[in-house]
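Our consortium's second objective concerns turning raw sequence data into structural hypotheses that experimental partners can test. To show how far this objective has progressed, the report includes one record in full. It was chosen at random from the queue rather than selected for favorable results. The single chain below, 471 residues long, was entered without modification.
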Amino acid sequence: MSANGGFMLHITFTQRRGFDRGRSTAKTSKTKILAAVNTWLAISLLVSVTACANSPNSKALEESLAADPRLQETPLPVPVPPPATQVDNSTNVKLPADFPTEIPLYPNAQLVAVDRPTDPAEKNVQLRWETADPVNSIQNFYATEFARRNWEIVSTPPTEGQGSLVAKRDNLRVSVLISPTQKVGGSTEFGIEYSNNNEAVSASPQPNNSESTPSPSPLPNAPNAGETAVTPTPSPKSEKATEQNSEIPQQLQQYAADLAQLGVLKVRSKPGGNLEAASTLPEPNKAITRREYARWLVAANNQIFASRQAKQIRLASESSEPAFSDIPKTDPDFPAIQGLAEAGLIPSSLSGQTKDVKFRPDAPLTRETMIFWKVPLDTRQMLPAANIEAVKDKWGFQDASKIDSQASRAILADFNNGDLANIRRVFGFTTLFQPKKSVTRAEAAASLWYFGVQGEGLSAEDAKEAKPATN
């Protein structure tokens, strides 16, 4: 063994003593020599590595190739992408305070923007809406509504679902701007542009202060179309009315406004108090009671058909025997509720449709009951036979099995009224009817805005126009 820790292998061999051993012996010796050399090299390498393992140089080499211990204790941080910014899809856009109530509102649309002109001389105001319905539904709705409300159709889109539908009535001109394509996600945008030729549309509502100058505005019931009056500073009562009107869902505002002008939405400020007809719908999001809806149903029908006595509901007289044990003759709503029962428009012991002798006047009105009472006044005929599968097939309601069997007949008949169906007007597009859910006052008003079927019926708007002006 050498001083370096290695081995020196000595190989000796004996010279051949004679040439007579031949070439085969020389070849064999050469092979053995090569094998011995290879063995020596392998052993030397192994021993050298083993010997160097304990040397300072080998330890330094090992440490240089080892992993950094700091990485084991504290790993390098992995970059984390910043959180995605959440997009707020909600909208608080409201109809302008001066939006003309004569313009029909598409029942299944959301107002997304109001664009007013920057030039004071420009009168056009454009509202942008968004809906899940296709463009042809929007076009058909406005073409039908404008024609039914006696608007003059100025122009129609050259092709279905593309272009503008322009209509005018008196000094009001309206353009429904329809786009041929839908947005990503299936929603459709359309615009309503309107202008009043007599009056410029203000860029924003005027502030309520003592220094502001009142501006003239047309009298709603003026005998002469051109007569104007100075708009007074809003009183606390009118401010409250404006606040109440803003609480009404925008799709239902027009219906409530028309009925309020007819004076049919009468309520009692306190139990046992006198009926009061407010200029706007009070507490529009409050659940309406069965007695209130019965009262409004009779009043709205009789007011809208004021000139057609054959379609009016006769109020019950004091000589009538009460149909319900909880609605005596002394009840202030007895004439209306008893009148509905005697006409067979609501189930009672008189019609034999129910064994319940109670009306439950102060219970909340449900959706299925509202349709059950209202639709017979639209069709003016017997309700069709119906079952759960038929209702589900027509309306696509997921909860059709929860609908009362009697009410399902009215719900099926309501479907046949197309865009004039109460369910479409009040609730828009829905796949859940929620038959036991309470109805709000605003929703009840929307259901009473129109009576009749397609091609034959009257609305509160029609009745308002036919109502003679008061001096």
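The partners drew two points from this record. Residues 132 and 184 are 11 Å apart (CA to CA). The two ends are 135 Å apart (CA to CA). Both points have been shared with the crystallography group to help prioritize constructs.
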